[in-house]
Amino acid sequence: MFVFPEDLPLELTPFAFLVGKWEGTGVISFKAEGSEAPTDREFKQRIEFAHDGHNVLTYISSAQLIGDEDIKLPSELGYWRLARPAEDADHGPGLLIGEGEPSLKSHEDLEKLRNEHGGFNIQVATLQPGGFAELYDGFIKGARVDLASYAGAAFEGAKIYRHSTRMFGLVENALLWVWEIAMPGSELRPHASARLERVE
Fold first, then answer.
1. Euclidean distance between CA atoms 173 and 196, whole angstroms
2. CB–CB of 70/55 below 8 Å?
3. Among residues 83, 29, 20, 61, which one has the least CA distance to residue 193?
4. What is the pLDDT of residue 20?
5. Which of 39, 53, 80, 129 counts the most CB atoms within 10 A of its CB?
6. Cα–Cα distances in Å, from 182 out to 59, 73, 146, 187?
7. Where are the alpha helices (DSSP H) in 4-104?
8. How many of the other CB atoms lie within 10 Å of CB of 105?
């Protein structure tokens, strides 16, 4: 049963259903052109969404193949936030401390950020251990999140893809997600999906 986190910062209210630790299984369904690698490989995954009292949600994902416990899949780290212009009260860049009062002080202030579809525009930054990072634009409405990458950065020699979309949704108290990627020179294709149950 979902319990609203008591210490959740006001600005993270739209993300409340995500906060916690989730575990479950999924399927990798992507097959690159010309690859002989098998498709539909099952994996188990653990995701944690948390916060430290600031206006961003942290995201940590770890996964490994089922049936071959020696193969750990790439982990992911990220930050999820409402899309809004930075203001003087926000900390940063770097370790610089914000000044003044934040503009969001009440639920009424938060409601003013709703988009024309009744949800909230959001931004997500993710980092993968192979040296590839992504920035996503998207929206959250109720218990559904839709994301589409608009920029990526990579170290020289890193494995990359050109574009990505992700969808997360709460269905019967389970967190379901779907991920599509477009490799360089190709269009979006299903990559992976999973069903996770809240464990904390």
1. 9
2. no
3. 29
4. 95
5. 80
6. 23, 19, 17, 5
7. none
8. 10
Domain span at residue 16?
10-82+103-198
Beta strands at 144-154 and 163-171: parallel, antiparallel or unpaired: antiparallel
Q: Indicate the residue type of 81.
A: R
| Segments of the chain scoring below 50 in pLDDT | none
Rg over CA atoms, the chain: 18
Q: Which amino acid is at 197?
A: E
Strand partners, 171: 174
Q: Does residue 1 sit within a domain?
A: no
User: What are residue 143's phi and psi, to 5 degrees?
Assistant: -110, 40
**Beta-carbon contacts of residue 199 (< 8 Å; ≥ 6 apart):** 20, 21, 22, 23
Q: Which two tokens stand for residue 34?
A: 């010309």
> The CATH number of the domain where 162 resides is what?
2.40.128.20
What's CA 191's distance to the chain center, in Å? 15
